[in-house]
Amino acid sequence: MPLTQEAQAEIDAARASARPTLRAVSEGMEAQLYTAHPVLDHGFVRVIDYMGDDSAIVQAARVSYGAGTKHVSNDEGLIRYLMRHWHSTPFEMCEVKFHVKLPVFVARQWIRHRTANVNEYSARYSILDREFYIPEPGQLAAQSTVNNQGRGAVLEGAEAARVLEMLKGDAMRAYDHYEAMLSQDGQQGLARELARMNLPANVYTQWYWKTDLHNLFHFLRLRADAHAQYEIRVYAELMCKLVADWVPLAYAAFADYRMGGVSVSAKGVEVIRRRLAGEAVTQETSGMSKGEWREFVEVFG
Amino acid sequence: MPLTQEAQAEIDAARASARPTLRAVSEGMEAQLYTAHPVLDHGFVRVIDYMGDDSAIVQAARVSYGAGTKHVSNDEGLIRYLMRHWHSTPFEMCEVKFHVKLPVFVARQWIRHRTANVNEYSARYSILDREFYIPEPGQLAAQSTVNNQGRGAVLEGAEAARVLEMLKGDAMRAYDHYEAMLSQDGQQGLARELARMNLPANVYTQWYWKTDLHNLFHFLRLRADAHAQYEIRVYAELMCKLVADWVPLAYAAFADYRMGGVSVSAKGVEVIRRRLAGEAVTQETSGMSKGEWREFVEVFG
Amino acid sequence: MPLTQEAQAEIDAARASARPTLRAVSEGMEAQLYTAHPVLDHGFVRVIDYMGDDSAIVQAARVSYGAGTKHVSNDEGLIRYLMRHWHSTPFEMCEVKFHVKLPVFVARQWIRHRTANVNEYSARYSILDREFYIPEPGQLAAQSTVNNQGRGAVLEGAEAARVLEMLKGDAMRAYDHYEAMLSQDGQQGLARELARMNLPANVYTQWYWKTDLHNLFHFLRLRADAHAQYEIRVYAELMCKLVADWVPLAYAAFADYRMGGVSVSAKGVEVIRRRLAGEAVTQETSGMSKGEWREFVEVFG
Amino acid sequence: MPLTQEAQAEIDAARASARPTLRAVSEGMEAQLYTAHPVLDHGFVRVIDYMGDDSAIVQAARVSYGAGTKHVSNDEGLIRYLMRHWHSTPFEMCEVKFHVKLPVFVARQWIRHRTANVNEYSARYSILDREFYIPEPGQLAAQSTVNNQGRGAVLEGAEAARVLEMLKGDAMRAYDHYEAMLSQDGQQGLARELARMNLPANVYTQWYWKTDLHNLFHFLRLRADAHAQYEIRVYAELMCKLVADWVPLAYAAFADYRMGGVSVSAKGVEVIRRRLAGEAVTQETSGMSKGEWREFVEVFG
Q1: What are the E-state strand segments in chain D?
Q2: Is the pLDDT assigned to residue A111 strictly greater than 60?
Q3: What ipTM is given for this predicted complex?
Q4: Residue D62 labelled as part of a binding site
C-alpha cells in the first residue's frame, strides 16, 4: 500500500479546500491533484502543482509569432503545427510538479534527465523505510538473447522461486542490518550517511520532480517507449495519462508526432521512395546495415 | 503609454474572472496577476502565472530532509536556513511567468541568463511597433571616468539636447525606412526578416519569460545590483517588489543574505579578524590589491 | 575584409607553433585551427579549440555499455548505432570553441540555443566597429507570399536600389551619430552603454561560443536547414564543413539520420504502409490536415 | 588496487605517445593525463582530456571586455578581478573530462550537479565487478548528536567490528546472489537490468564526467567543503589538486574568493561594522537567530 492513513488524510484535506485563482486552470488536472496513483508494489505518482494549460501554449506562441499565427484556424491546429515543426519554446511555458515514490535503480535512470528540478528524500538526514521493489512473477524475466539491454522469456518454476527468495531475503537482511547499525540502543549508532550504503538498489526513495512540458515530453518519449526498462516505463505510462488530462490538445499532438512517430534517415527516405515507385528493395540494395534494415522493416514492413 | 485600450480590456476581463483551484495560492501574487506595471517609457512587466508560494518551498525541503527539518521551529526559520546554506533546490520548486516589454539592448543582456524559458515576439513573422526607448534627461549620463562600464555625471545643456535629437531622429528615420521597405504598395516589399535589421537597439520587443525562483533570485541579485545598467535595473527592481508580494519569507531571506550580503575572501576574513583584534590594517599589510582593498573598505570602512 | 593585418599575424603565429600533447588529436581539425573563414560581408568563423574526436565518442560509449558494445564490429557502426538510437551522451563528450563575428540580428537567433558558453564583445565596455551587414543583391528578397517567415522573389531594379540605399545610409548615419555622442572632444561624451542603443541590428558583434557536439548537432540541424534564415544558415553550413573535418564518422551519421532524415508521424507511417500495400491515399483519406499533407508529399511524393 | 594490469598498460601506452597540437596546452595538466589517482579503497580519478588553460580565460575575457581589460596589468590580476566580480563566463571557456570510479551512493550525490556531461557504466548492458566500498576504521563514525547530517565520534571496539562485519558480509552475499541470478549455467539467467537491483549502494560504478571550469568550481566549493560527506570530499579534494596543476592562476583565485571566502549577510555586515566601531555585539543585539550567530562567531570570533 503506497500511502499511510495519515498521508491519505492530508491528501483528502488538500483536495477538499478549493480557493479562487485568476490563473489558467485545467479542469482535467484539478481532478488529479494530490491523488496518489499506485505504481509497482510500493511506488506512486501524484501531481502536486501545475502551471498553464493548452491555452497557455497557444498564448505564448501568439506572442512569438504575432499576426503570423492568425491564419491558423484554431488552437488544435496551431498546437499540432508547433509540435510538427519542433517549436519547443511554447511547450516550455507549461510546468508541472510531481511527487514520486520509486525504487533507487529507477531514480538513477530518471535523474539523467537534467532539465528538471528535484528535491529527493535525503538518507543523510533521515531514515529510509523498509520498502523494497520485488517484481511480480510476470516481470521476472531472463536476459534477452538478442538484445544486450533487454528482457527475454519470463523465468519459471524453481529458478523464479530462487530469484524471488534471494531478492526478498537480501533486502530484509540488509534492512535489518541497516537498523542494527543505526541503533543507539546500548551503542553509539553508525552515521545515517554511512549506514544507508548497505541498502540495495530496489529500496524505495521519493522526490519532488518539477519540469516543463517540453522536457516532460522528451522524458516520456524515451521512458514510455517499448525499449525502456519496464520499471520506469510504468511510471512514464501513468504520467502520459495525467498529461493527457492536463493538456489534451498538446498530448494528442505529442502522441501522433513523437510517441507514434518515427525518424527516417536519408537512406530510409530514399528506400521508401524507391518502393513507392515499385522497386523491390532488399537490405543489400538499401545501403543500410543489417541492424538498420531490421529496424526499418519492423516499421514499414 | 505601455498598453493599448484593447490590451487593458483583456487584462481587466482576465482579472475579473476567478476560478476555483486546489493548488497553492499566493494572495499577494493574485493581486498582481496580469496588471501591467510600467517600466521606462514604453516598457512593462506583468505576471502571467506562478506556481507555489513560501509553503511550497518548505514542503519541498521537508521531503528532502525529512525528520531533519522538524527541529526548525517555523517556516521562516527553515527558509532562512536554506538560503544561508545555499540549499537551492527547494527554491526551484516555485516558478513564475512574466510578460515583459523591453528595449532590445536590455533584452540582449537579459537573455544571457540561460536557465529560463522564453517566447519572444518574432520580427521574422511580424512587424514591430514604432516604439523606442529615449532616456529621460536625468538618465542621459556621460561615460564614467573611473569605471569602464559605468556612467558618470548627467549630460547637460547643448550636449544633452544634441544626443536626444540624434537618438530620436535616427529612431524615427529608421522606422520610416523600415515601413518603406516593408510596404507592398506599388512594390514587392522587403522580407520582414531583412527589414528588421534596420531598427536600432532601443526599439522595443516583448517576450514571455518563465523561470524558477532560485534562478530568478540569481537574476535579481545581478540585475538589481547598483552596478547593473540602469535600464535593466529598473526592471529588476520592479520584479523584486512582485516577488516580495509572492513569497514574502523567501524574499526577506534573499534580501538579507544575497542582495544585502557580501562575499568576503579568505584574505578579507583574515583582515577583519586582525582589525577586530585591534590591529590597524592597511592596503599594504592586507595582502590585497588596490582594487580589492578599495572595494573592501567601501563595505567595512 | 574580415580580419585586420594584425589579427592575421596573430593567427599565423599561433598556427606556426605546434606543441606536444597526450590528448586525443583530430588531424582534420588541427588543419582548421585559428583560420578565419569569411561569412557574409564582414563576418567569420574560426575554431579556437576542440576536445575529442570520433574515437572519444566511441570510448565514452564503451564505458557506458561495456561488453555490450563489443559485438559492434567497428567505430563507424557504433557511432551510427548511437545516432540512430538517440544516445546523445557520448556525443556530449566532444567539445568545440568558435570565435564568430556576426550581425546582431543573427546573434539574437543564435543565442536562443541555451546549452552553450558565450563570451560576447561588450558594448558597455568597448566601442563597436563601423561594420554593418548589407545583403548582396541576390539576397535582397521580398516577403514570401506563402510563408509568414520566409522569403520570396529577389527584389529588382529601383526597389532594390532604394532598399540598399536606406540600409547603407541609415547604418552610416547611425554610426556617425554613435561616434558623435561618444566623442569627448569638447564635450563630456555619452556613456558607451547608452550610445550603443543607436546602432541598428545589422551592426557586427563577435563572441566566443563553446558547446558540445550533441548540442552543436542540434544547432546545425535547425540552422543549416533550408527553412532557417539565410544569414544564419551560411554560418551553420560553414560549421558543418568544419565538423566534418573534425569528427568525420559522427558527421556522416548526423548527415544521414538528422540533416537528411525526416520525422514521420503515426499518421504518416500508416499512410506509407497503406501506399506500400497499393492503396492510393489522398489528403482526404490520410487523416492529415492540408498543411501536414503538403509537407508529407514534398518528401515522399 | 584500482586498476588492472591491462588498464595500466593502456594508460602507459597513452602516456608514451605525444602528438603535436596547435591548441592551448597546460603543461601541468599534461603531466596528469590518464594517470589513475586512487581514492577510497577501489576508486580513482583520472583526467581524460581538457580544453584551455589560464590564458584561455584571459583571452575570452578580453574578447568580452575589449579595451576595457587593458588597464589590468597582468593575467593574474584580471583572473582575480573576474572571480571577485562573479564574471563566470570566461571560466566556462575551459573544459575538463574525468574518468571516475566511485561508490553508487557517492555517484548519487555527484549527479545532482546537472551542468555536466556524463557517460556512466550501464548495469543494464554489462555486469558490475565485485567491488564495494568498506570504510577504513577511522571513518566508521557515529551519527552526530548536533548535526542531522553529520558524523560524530569514531565507533570503537565491538560496535565497529559488528558494523564492518555487516557491511562486508551483506556486500559479499548480495554479489554472490547477483552472480547466481545472472548465471546461465543450467538455468535461463535473470536479466541484468533486474539482477542489479540486489546490489547495495556501496558497490562501485564508473563514469566519464565532463564539465566546464566554472561549474567545476561550483562543484568543488560544495563538495570539498568541510560539511560535505567524507566519501565525496576525498574525490573533490583530489580534483582540487588536479585543477591547481591545470589552471594555477584561476585555482588560486578560487581558493581565495570561494573556498576560503565566506558570505556575510546584511545583518552580518552591520554587526562587523558595529564591532569595528568598538561596540560589543551579542546574539541578542545582533538581530541574528542563534544558529546564524553561532556560524558567524565560528568565522569572526
Answers
A1: 19-21, 37-39, 43-51, 95-103, 117-120, 141-143, 151-154, 204-212, 262-264
A2: yes
A3: 0.94
A4: no
